[in-house]
Amino acid sequence: MSTAKDIAKLHVFMCIEAAKSESNGDIETADRLRAQGNLRLVTMTSEELWELANLIYPKGSNVHDYYMHLHQVVRIRVDEAHEWLPQMFRKPFEWLSYN
Question: Do 55 and 22 meet the contact criterion of CB atoms below 8 Å apart?
């Protein structure tokens, strides 16, 4: 069973993977990973968002303030879901064998 901290760490790791894909020129994978990250973000519990805020809040700022900022980001991602959600399904069955 994953803890809130594990989910927050996974989210950060996958965001880094998306950035690596983009830097390697694999824009389609980067877009898909970002869409998955958006979905993960908008479905996080308050505890998971708190752990994420605790991992990535800017130095010199307050963790609680950054946590509240993440709540605003979630609202924005929900409002913009029609833009990023389709990116998750660009090649949904690529991994299946067509034999």
Answer: no
pLDDT digits (tens, 9 = 90+) for 59-84: 888 999 999 999 999 999 999 999 98
C-alpha to C-alpha distance for 82 and 45, rounded to whole angstroms: 22
pTM, two decimal places? 0.82
pLDDT per position as a tens digit, 12-51: 999 999 999 999 999 989 999 999 999 999 999 999 999 9
* Domain ranges across the chain: 4-89
Mind giving me the DSSP string for the chain? ---HHHHHHHHHHHHHHHHHHHHTT-HHHHHHHHHHHHHHHHT--HHHHHHHHHHHPPTTS-HHHHHHHHHHHHHHHHHTHHHHGGGGGSSTTTTS---
Calpha distance 69→15 (Å, rounded): 18
